[in-house]
Design goal:
40% helix; SDR_fam; SDR family oxidoreductase; 6 strands; four-stranded parallel β-sheet; 230 residues; alpha/beta; NAD(P)-bd_dom_sf; single chain
C-alpha cells in the first residue's frame, strides 16, 4: 500500500513496530519517512501524526492497516483475547483517525481522505474458520467508517473502508501461501478462482485516497474476487 501511494505521487510516512523492515521499505521509496509506532499506544499515535506534520507540513491521507487475528472457537476464546483484537483492530483506528482528522481540518486545501482496512469478515461469518473477535472488530470498523464519514464530511474529510478477501500475508500464513495455495473452501468459493495478489489492492486504495473518489464517502469497497457473492 505504501508503494502504491508513493507511485501515485504521495510522500509517505510508513509506521510499524519493526524498525528495520520499515527503514528498508522507506529506502525503496522516493519520498518516505519511517516511524516506529505501536498503534495501540497513545503516545506512539500522537508522535506518528506529529512526525508527518513536521516532516511534510500537511496530512492529506491516512490508511489504518494494522490488525491482529487470533482464530479459535468462541466458547474457548478468552475475554482478554477478544478485547485485544478490538483494541488493535477497532479502538486504535478510531483514535488515530480522530488525531488525523483534527490535523486535516485545520489545514487549507483539497479534501482529505481516511481509509480503514476492514475485511470481508466484517460482512459475513468466517465459517469454517472461527474468529469471533476478528469478525466483531472488522464489522465494527465498517460501522465506524460510516459514522465518521457522516460526522466529518462538513470538514471535507472523506472516510471509506477497504474489505479485502483472502490475500497471502503474515496474518494468513498457514492458511494460504504466497504461491496461491489455499483450502478449497477459499479458492472454490471465489468466482475468480484464486487468492488476491498485493497489486489487486493498489487501484482500490489509490482510488479511495485520491480526487477520483471526491464524492465517495462512508463506502466499503470489497476486493475479494467475488467471494462474498456466494
Amino acid at each position: 500500500m505504501a508503494r502504491a501511494a508513493s507511485a501515485a505521487g504521495a510522500s509517505v510516512v510508513v509506521a510499524a513496530r519493526r524498525v528495520e523492515r520499515l527503514r528498508d521499505l522507506a529506502g525503496e521509496l522516493p519520498s518516505a519517512t519511517a516511524v516506529r509506532c505501536d498503534v495501540a499506544v497513545d503516545e506512539d499515535r500522537v508522535r506518528l501524526i506529529e512526525t508527518a506534520l513536521d516532516r511534510y507540513g500537511r496530512l492529506d491521507g491516512l490508511v489504518n492497516n494494522a490488525g491482529v487475528s487470533e482464530p479459535g472457537p468462541a466458547s474457548r476464546e478468552a475475554v482478554e483475547t477478544f478485547r485485544r483484537q478490538l483494541e488493535i483492530n477497532l479502538v486504535a483506528p478510531f483514535a488515530l483517525a480522530a488525531l488525523a482528522a483534527r490535523a486535516m481540518r485545520e489545514l487549507p486545501g483539497s479534501a482529505r481522505s481516511i481509509v480503514n482496512v476492514s475485511s470481508i469478515m466484517g460482512l459475513r461469518s468466517t465459517a469454517p474458520m472461527p474468529e469471533a473477535g476478528y469478525v466483531a472488530s472488522k464489522a465494527g470498523l465498517i460501522g465506524l467508517t460510516r459514522e465518521l464519514a457522516s460526522q466529518w464530511g462538513r470538514h471535507r474529510i472523506r472516510v471509506n473502508a477497504l474489505a479485502p478477501g483472502f490475500f497471502p500475508s503474515e496474518m494468513t500464513d498457514g492458511l494460504v501461501s504466497a504461491d496461491g495455495g489455499a483450502p478449497h473452501w477459499i479458492t472454490g468459493g471465489t468466482p475468480l478462482g484464486r487468492l488476491g495478489r498485493p497489486e489487486d489492492l493498489d487501484g482500490a486504495l489509490v482510488f479511495l485516497l485520491s480526487a477520483a473518489a471526491s464524492f465517495v464517502t462512508g463506502h466499503t469497497l470489497v476486493v475479494d474476487g467475488g467471494f462474498t457473492t456466494r
